[in-house]
Amino acid sequence: MCTYHSIQRANERTRYNGNAAVRFVEKGIERGKTAEDFKQDEKAISCSVYLFKPHSKDEVGKEKKPEEKYRGRHEGILFTVNGQTQGILSDSFFSRMNLSYIKDSILVIADCSKIDVEHQEELFMTSRDRIRTSDFSKDLEDCIVKELREHPGLKKVAYDRRNAALRDRLANNQPLKDMLQRICKKSPVLTKLFVAGQDIASPFTTTYTAGQGESFEGKLHPTFFKLKGKFRDGKLVKAVPCNASFRVQFDTDVQNDYFNRPSEAGSLVLKMDGVVRADLIQHLSLYNGQANLTVALPAGASDGDTHVFETEIQDDYIVNSFESSFYVNVIRAEEPRSGGAGVPHRPTDPKKNGNQQTPFRFAIPEIIPVTRDDWEQRGMDRFSALVYEPTDDGGDYYLNMENDYLLTELRSVRDQSRIQLTKARYTFSMALIGMSIISYYKNNPAEPEETDVPAIVKRITSMISPVLIPMLESMANLEIDEASVAA
């Protein structure tokens, strides 16, 4: 079970702000089971997700960080056994689900007290500062990614904080984007690799059926729990690959903590072909009037099968339970997706029936200049060059304009126009390098999904920064005779 909390003050007072269900409960004690093999009513890994208030300034201008009282620096996920931390994942993990703008405000506590010793050995190390790399730990990480990536509350907070961070910075940013777009268009290679950017509309402009965003006030018990989707002849039919899970949605008017509060909670029962199948429920989330149920197909499902699924909301405080049904047509297996974390997935090519993926392209990014005052917030230092913050519509590039190597080069320049030219070359070169790194990891199927692309972008651009300006200056002044000797 995965529960979401919103930390309202820097103390122990919390309130529920949504919930979801991640079920990691083992069927048996034999080795080889994965997180997807777990179900709710046995040995559960219970995950609680805490969201802290954003940083603010006190009366004397000192930055207040509410999360510091509850988590260590860069601690994102704590895996505990009987209240003791046994393993840690860095908050950079949250970049895998495009939550970079709130990664320092999230704390996930995964209570592993109920899993057997053999699985604890597959997960924990004696150092306790990280977790072991194993099939089980990777599967557990994937489950957490799936859960957090699609949670509408977290996505909206991340979107709002990004807007707050960029509100004053982007007013004068359009000339940078226009220039970078012109540079890309002049080069045939860059034109093929990158696509001109367009303004992306807010993904949160739509309204909830049973409530309006933050103003939603749910009922203690539901008065409706209605299946939603595209119905044909009164039926909801979904086509699902035999190696995939699927999601169905419901509209309701109940409170967000309905399924996991300590008293007067309701439950959702899932049946397949008339048989109760709690083991097929992977995730159940409920947020501001919308419930999302993720269901796995049973082992042995094959192309051509058809199954009837039924759901029932059971609640001792309502007279009639709410029942729904839908149909699943099983189709052939889909190819697994690949590419590093922190980059959007490649789109399918509609001209090829969606079976092949087109080369990954992305919009011209936002380029935000950063000075020394912003280093701590962006995780930079005097040698950092570029920090990439992935978002659902591409990403933002934070460029360190007080990098030691850049400042050293600028000190040797007296002409003001030359200074501006050097800064421009540094800006656009670093942006193109960042775009190229991200494109590489997206277009190489051999790269694992969990690759930390933002960390790689930061490391490579820092490595390149000492030689970038001298190289650009030398190439600009290269004479034809020198070029012939080099050839």
Average pLDDT works out at: 77
- DSSP helix count? 10
| Number of strand elements | 21
User: What topology, given as strand order, has the largest sheet?
Assistant: 7-6-8-3-1-2-15-16-12-9
How many domains is the backbone divided into? 3
Residue share in helix: 25-40%
Shape: elongated
Q: What's the alpha carbon Rg, rounded to whole Å?
A: 25 Å
Tell me the major beta sheet: 10 strands, mixed
Secondary structural class: alpha+beta
Bin the strand percentage.
25-35%
Low-confidence stretches: 4-43, 195-213, 346-361
Distance between the termini: 64 Å
Quick summary of this structure?
The chain has 487 residues and is α+β, with helices and mostly antiparallel strands. It has helices spanning 117-123, 135-149, 152-166, 174-186, 188-193, 375-378, 404-411, 416-443, 453-476, 480-486; strands at 2-7, 14-22, 46-51, 56-57, 63-64, 75-81, 84-90, 106-111, 225-228, 231-232, 235-241, 245-252, 267-272, 275-276, 281-287, 290-296, 306-314, 322-331, 366-370, 386-391, 394-400. Helix 8 (416-443) packs across helix 9 (453-476).
Secondary structure layout plus pairing:
Elements: E1 2-7, E2 14-22, E3 46-51, E4 56-57, E5 63-64, E6 75-81, E7 84-90, E8 106-111, H1 117-123, H2 135-149, H3 152-166, H4 174-186, H5 188-193, E9 225-228, E10 231-232, E11 235-241, E12 245-252, E13 267-272, E14 275-276, E15 281-287, E16 290-296, E17 306-314, E18 322-331, E19 366-370, H6 375-378, E20 386-391, E21 394-400, H7 404-411, H8 416-443, H9 453-476, H10 480-486
